[in-house]
TrEMBL record, chains A, B:
Any one of the GO BP annotations: proteolysis
Pfam families the UniProt entry points to: M20_dimer, Peptidase_M20
Protein name: Acetylornithine deacetylase/Succinyl-diaminopimelate desuccinylase
GO MF, any single term: metal ion binding
InterPro entries according to UniProt: Cyt/Met_Dipeptidase, Peptidase_M20, Peptidase_M20_dimer
Superkingdom assignment: Bacteria
Peptidase M20 dimerisation domain boundaries: 211-361
Keywords annotated in UniProt: Hydrolase, Metal-binding, Protease
Length: 478, 478
């Protein structure tokens, strides 16, 4: 039951929706692909664009250099009382290949209005530009009505989330006092289903590695040398093919050490909320779950570690045929981790698994593209409950507590370095094609997302007022 | 024992060597990569260049169109008596990637003169531009001294040898009478070792296939879907990883049906000629033979079928890391075959091997890039013996009868369509880096190659004279 303060801000958010959308389009037009050094200037442009938006809210905002892409940090100079909140998001986006599968250029976003299906398409429309703007636009609506933000709200945006966040930890460590708050809100996750909002409390960790194998000292003719000299691509296939056993489990010895079985309460909770496994698979063209035999899709995605080959390359990949015996091959692999697994230990185990299988004359080299532990957020902290209630109000159905298969390593960093729990609220749908061609964000996600955050701001306003009352009647508060 | 006729032509070949080399440099400068459609015009240019060279020898030469790259055909209008010989070569070359491994641009050939090591570098310097020119330059030397060629010699050059020769069979079939001769000389093979020339009588066949696997209907986020949805690259690695058993043998059921054990005479012959296995492997940076356990390198390369992955591709292969779960992956694979194996049957077996291993929701598609049966040439034909003798004379050591691991499918076509045996004489060394960066051809290969062919022309001249004598004394001949 929103009070008048909240209702006024919700009306403002509705009125300003068109302008909010225009800002999202401008933001998506900046091709801020962090992993590709050709887009370094675009990443800075995206940071500057965001800093400008925050300045237009009356905040002290700045683009702060790092050894990689810059951070954007903003604080409210008004120094409002009440809960101290940090909002986090990322302005960088994934690469766009294969480009030919996009229906239109990925950085020329469009609003598609086809009856019930209204959405904005473009790289980053959902992950994370659309998502992070829901919070900024909620602040804008609130401030346009009330003249100030309802609590002490600061902002932190990075530009390296899609490439392992190498600058984030040093930045948090160097600015510990400035950035430590009571809680951090993160908007980079999914809904439970298209109608049911969710707060994510279980996050898998990750370990991203690249392995390169070398055999002969140069590419050879497959007829002149085939059979007698080792083929690097074949060797790579052999070794990667052994990484998963016939039961679908990852075959690295010791990989599952420390992994806890799914707690019976969680298993029961997940069973009680209808999850359409067949529908989930059908959305991506599948009908039978892969992975570990005998485990549900939900358990596999949220509570079990996984292994994927994200890319492989070697030999002649062009048009036609080249009868070559490749001397070199490489693969990028991703492990997703659950609580109890140590990414540094698993990196060692993975590299051992490969090197132990190298025959004579062959060499392996490795590169790391980042790693993080899994995180489980306690669902009974002071902010999760109120956030769940406001989501339930806005969407008209019970909001869920969910897990996510994707890694959000910053959540671990915020806890470890700044001592803050994260409240992860997200409005992305399963079919947003995040990281894929034709990424989209539904207008209902954007609109209800902004309105959801307005309601959360209302709760922060209540908390601030109740703190102020307690301060003015100290005897009652004790 | 060369008579004066031969000695004069040898002297001419020596005198003209500088000009011969200049012609080779001009030829290598034409980037006639047949498998790459961007080089279609260059292939025609190479054909026209060759036709011009043949015309300069007084031959009727023509560039003849095919649905692919053109053929070059030339005949001697003088209509000399004697053995009727066809010479075959190919003017197309392999692709040049990885370009960054070349010491200089592959189509800007250079003559490197470093003491004992004199060679010409560039794509095609050896395979097959340098090799085929040894014969043309021998004819030029012979003709410059004697005014005409010593026998009825015709020429056939194709431009699709490196991409499966799709136009050759129809062309041979359509021009059967024009091209049928007593024998065909082919210059596209190796020496036995750096000092020992060889005639190749055993050739492996080939089967080139591309397989593409598809799983989900688009690339996905490895965190959001990893474990629960099939990864096309992982599936491809699993299946290709199963293609070879732990003993190094190819694991496709029925693959070795019809393969004969190495004949004891051949095994004894190969044992009698010193073959430096360790040196052979060391040249390419290896020390231990791969492939089938318990078989010599020579047997594996010449008398056993082989399997290679020539290229693999899937997912994100660019700079940095992309946490993608690839929906699609493909590989180009090469099988080398021995007598007794039917490529059409093996294609079916290979495709079955893959499709039988496809899990639910996954699809495989295949493309064929050509196939040929293996060939064994009878070593007691009328041309092999004289050719062996002339090679022995020129190089000063007993010439060998060898096999080759590479496929020369034209040899089978010449036998089947035109009824001709092939005499395969080659001057390439093992370290010519054929199909690899920094391909080279030794000046000694080029020079002794030309001189070897001059001696072969001398034998043809003798045969022509002896035929003429038999014709003028018919009673003696009977």
């Amino acid at each position: 039951m929103a009070d008048r303060t909240v209702e006024q801000a919700l009306e403002a958010a509705d009125t300003q929706l068109g302008a909010s959308l225009e800002r999202l389009l401008s933001f998506v037009r900046i091709p801020s692909i962090s992993t590709d050094s050709r887009h370094r200037g675009d990443c800075r442009r995206a940071a500057e664009w965001l800093a400008g938006e925050l300045a237009s809210l009356g905040l002290d905002s700045a683009v702060r250099d790092t050894p990689g892409h810059p951070m954007v940090v903003a604080h409210d100079p008004a120094g409002v009382a009440g809960p101290r909140v940090l909002f986090y998001g990322h302005y960088d986006v994934q690469p766009v290949d294969p480009l030919e599968l996009w229906d239109h250029p990925p950085f020329e976003p469009r609003i598609v209005d086809a009856g019930d299906d209204k959405h904005i398409t473009g790289r980053g429309a959902s992950d994370d530009k659309g998502a992070l703007l829901t919070f900024i636009e909620a602040c804008r609506a609130w401030k346009s009505v009330h003249g100030h933000l309802p609590a002490s709200i600061s902002f932190l945006f990075e530009g390296e989330e899609e490439s392992g966040s190498p600058s984030l930890v040093p930045f948090l460590e160097a600015n510990r006092d400035e950035l430590s708050r009571d809680v951090v809100f993160v908007c980079d996750t999914d809904m439970w289903d298209d109608q049911t909002p969710a707060i994510t409390t279980l996050l898998r960790g990750h370990l991203f590695e690249e392995v390169t194998l070398e055999a002969a000292d140069r590419d050879l003719h497959s007829g002149m040398f085939g059979n007698a000299v080792r083929n690097a691509v074949e060797l790579l296939c052999d070794i990667l093919g052994e990484l998963r056993g016939p039961d679908g489990a990852i075959a690295i010895p010791g990989f599952y050490d420390g992994v806890q079985p799914l707690a019976p309460e969680i298993a029961a909770l997940w069973k009680s909320i209808p999850f359409d496994e067949a529908g989930f698979l059908a959305r991506v063209g599948a009908s039978v779950p892969a992975g570990e035999a005998g485990r549900s899709v939900m358990e596999q995605l949220w509570a079990r570690p996984s292994f994927d080959i994200c890319g492989i390359s070697g030999g002649y990949e062009g048009e036609g045929f080249k009868a070559v015996l490749p001397a070199k091959a490489s693969a990028k692999v991703s492990f997703r981790l659950v609580p109890g697994q140590d990414p540094d230990r698993l990196r060692t185990l993975f590299r051992q698994f490969v090197t132990e299988r190298l025959p004579a004359d062959c060499r392996a080299s490795f590169s790391s593209f980042g790693a993080s532990r899994a995180t489980a957020i306690a669902p009974d902290g002071p902010f999760i409950g109120p956030a769940l209630e406001t989501l339930t109000e806005e969407w008209g159905r019970q909001a869920a507590l969910a897990g996510t298969g994707g890694s959000i390593p910053i959540v671990g960093h915020f806890k470890r370095i700044l001592g803050m729990d994260s409240v992860m609220v997200g409005f992305a749908r399963f079919d947003n094609r995040v990281h894929s061609p034709n990424e989209k964000y539904d207008l209902s996600s954007f609109h209800h997302g902004i309105r959801s955050w307005v309601r959360v701001l209302g709760r922060l306003d209540e908390m601030a007022r109740s703190q102020a009352e307690r301060r003015s009647s100290p005897t009652e508060a004790r």
